[in-house]
Amino acid sequence: MQPPAGSQVSRVPAQRPPSDHLAPPSPAPAPERPRRRLRTVLTVVTSVVVALCLGGVAAGYVLYNRAAAPDRSAPDVVVDNYLRAFLVDRNDTRANLFTCEGNGDRAAVSGLRSEIEQREANFDVVVKVSWGPLTRTETSEGESVATTLTISGSANGQPRSSRREDWVFDVVEQNEGWRVCSGRKAG
Questions:
Q1: Dihedral of CA 184/113/158/130: which sign?
Q2: CA torsion sign, 46 to 49 to 52 to 57?
Q3: pTM
């Protein structure tokens, strides 16, 4: 019903409903979700990098073991490595990698090294040992390897003395290859 004309009610402006009765504002669009594609690419790249690193570590381990493992593949090879370790480098730990398990008779070779060390100390010289071809001969227990050792002394870069000695080394095949069991002067 309408209010009568001239009434005061008609002069009152129409009231608006309170704002809480209004419809809620339209929500803002939801932010886009990060793309799963980027996450997948990062996961694949990370996996590949980890696999390459693990492969590199494994390859490094194998290569190191091959390089550090003593070569005992043949009698002449093991004698060459033994002489280099024992007489040239004077590294007993390395030389032991090429010797027989058990005692063996390497007293003559030890005596030669002691003589070399005494000459260096007494005469203030540097003594070097080298050897010629290594000749293999089969024996009943394994093989023997013969060679000629050249023992040279020098002082201040000037040669002082040199001598040659024929030596024979007995070698047997044990566990992981050939090993030097004894060494002696020939003859």
A1: positive
A2: negative
A3: 0.67
Cβ atoms 187, 172 nearer than 8 A: no
The CA distances from residue 17 to 1, 12, 24, 137, 155, in Å, are: 20, 15, 14, 117, 115
Contact 129, 150 (CB under 8 A): yes
Q: What angle do CA 117, 78, 137 make, to 5 degrees?
A: 110
Per-residue pLDDT of the chain (187 residues; tens, 9 = 90+): 566 666 555 555 566 655 555 666 677 777 666 668 888 889 999 999 999 999 999 888 888 877 777 888 999 999 999 999 999 999 999 999 999 987 678 899 999 999 999 999 999 999 999 999 999 999 998 999 999 999 999 998 899 899 999 999 999 998 789 999 999 999 7
Pairwise CA distance, residues 55 & 44, whole Å: 16
